[in-house]
Amino acid sequence: MSNTNHSDKRHSNGANNRHKQNGVTSSSQKMGKASPRYRPSRNQGPVTEDERLLRRPTQPLISPKAPVPQEQVREEEHALDRALHFDFTLTDPWRVLRIMSEFVNGFDALAHIPPSVAVFGSARVKPGDPTYQAAEETARLLAQAGFGIITGGGPGVMEAANKGAQEEGACSVGCNIELPFEQSANPYLDISLDFSYFFVRKTMFIKYAEAFVIFPGGFGTMDELFEALTLIQTRKVNHFPVILYNSKYWGGLTAWLNETMLTAGAISEEDALLLRVSDDPQEICQFVTEAYQELYRADKKQNPDIREQLIR
Known about the structure:
Layout: H1 2-21, H2 27-32, H3 49-54, H4 70-77, H5 79-84, H6 92-110, E1 116-120, H7 130-144, E2 148-151, H8 157-167, E3 172-177, E4 191-195, H9 198-208, E5 209-214, H10 219-233, E6 242-245, H11 247-264, H12 269-272, E7 275-278, H13 281-302, H14 306-311
Parallel strand pairs: 1-2, 1-5, 2-3, 3-4, 5-6, 6-7
Helix pairs in contact: 6-9, 7-8, 7-13
């Protein structure tokens, strides 16, 4: 009996190995693994506050013409009782107070910073990398011109920009975000803020930055880039410079915007001009400085200082 079992196992293992070698997978093996795209979550770590806010419980799909299931009837009958005994601090209305506190803390901390430039880019860039060096040099030049620097507060391009600003004695701000994987603040921050909600954090960038300088990066960098472009396009904010560093890296994107989106009429020629591309930190600094000085002169002309009005 024992010998037969061992023989069967060897035969089974050998057959499985042959299937693998030949690239053959049985239908049962295919059905056993869900596509990664549709798995509930790849995050095995702690659930962040952002995730809790944006997550909704799943519900059964019911046709509008179908009778209401008895299970749903019972759920609705006991909904009030459950609500009365549910911990309010776990609900979305309570979460609104947390969101409000993040806005208050952010506005309070950044209300008195000097005119500043937001610098974005990959957290994966290492010191010594040309992109890291370019971000540090750009921030240093902007600091010499009188600007503070705001970043996401993490490593990579963010660290390089904060380092360049702080070493020149300029205000260096980091707006960090709670993530499933830990992202610690870089050591070059004068003001370090921690946010649980991406949309609160992005509001700080938009509100307190006079320009966006975008270095090569990934999804997060793209999110911040197009958030700014959308708000400028829809005139929710004043038109401020949005500059892409590294024409080779961004060339495919800018070509697609001009050759596909613009040609299809999805954006206007004016929209296509919202982006500027440069490979020179000195040119970036000059453009940001000139744009801000022009805005300053326009503001002074439209809204002269109250003391000047009183003197006249």
